[in-house]
Amino acid sequence: MSQVTISVKGLSVSYERKRVLTNIFLELEAGNVYGVVGPNGAGKSTLFKAILGLIDVNNGTVVINGKTIQDVRKEVVYVPQKSDVDWQFPATVYDIILMGRYPHKKMFQRLSKTDHDFAHQALEEVGMTQFKDRQIGELSGGQQQRVFLGRALCQQADIFLFDEPFVGVDITTEERIIKILKKLAAQQKTLLVVHHDLSSVKNYFDKVILLNQRLIAVGDTNTTFTEENISKAYGAQLPILHKTGGLS
Question: Which listed site, 17, 152, 166, 221, has its alpha carbon 20 to 30 Å from 176?
């Protein structure tokens, strides 16, 4: 049996008295790419922020590798939605990727040759070596996403949280990202990916978490990503998804 790396017990979160997540229980195992799926407002990003300790919770606990997030922060990497990033920030591709090493450093500690070696390795893996001196605002959407994946790889973490990494990227980048995620899972990493394109869920994810403020279902994609569970998660939005090609 695979090792449980993230244990969420009885998690409930509210914003301004409005309940966003209710009584969530999850046991997530190493060696899997989890798709986190549900309609807008389902609490997917909130779940990530609760796991990362970025928000207050009403009830419940999150344990990562048997510890609190404060004790294992460098083992966890978060890649936010592109819309949450300041792309005018005066940093190059290489600067951003090298930031993946900072969690491993003490205050004012200099970066080592090993840190730079990790950065160059990550640059190569995401196919951005030739752009390393480019300012991040000059990149295409797909290139920007590759840079943030590169930063995540450079951190050498055990747990990866990606919030909609495929939004606004080209098909080549999407294929490269999913190939890297599956490679990380084969190295016994734990990966959670918020995803909105239901037509690719079965191809991309080993396991799926269906969420709509409460946990609808979690398990192997083949047995859990069913019409019945999708209907429970999306409710009235389901006919719209069929019309727009979100389901096939």
Answer: 221
Q: Which amino acid does the sequence have at 69?
A: I
pLDDT, one tens digit per residue, over 208-239 is: 999 999 999 999 999 999 999 999 999 866 65
Instruction: Please report which residue ranges of the chain form alpha helices under DSSP H.
Output: 44-51, 69-72, 93-98, 113-125, 141-154, 171-186, 201-204, 221-224, 227-234, 238-244
Cα–Cα distance list, 226 to 32, 175, 214, 239 (Å): 19, 24, 17, 15
Tokens coding 74: 């460098």
C-alpha to C-alpha distance for 224 and 217, rounded to whole angstroms: 7
Classify 55 in phi/psi space as left (phi over 0), alpha (psi -120 to 50) or beta.
beta
Please name each of the domains of the chain with its CATH number: 4-85+158-244 (3.40.50.300)
For residue 186, the tally of other CB atoms under 10 A from its CB is 10
What pTM was computed for the model?
0.90
Predicted confidence band of residue 137 (pLDDT cuts 50, 70, 90)? confident
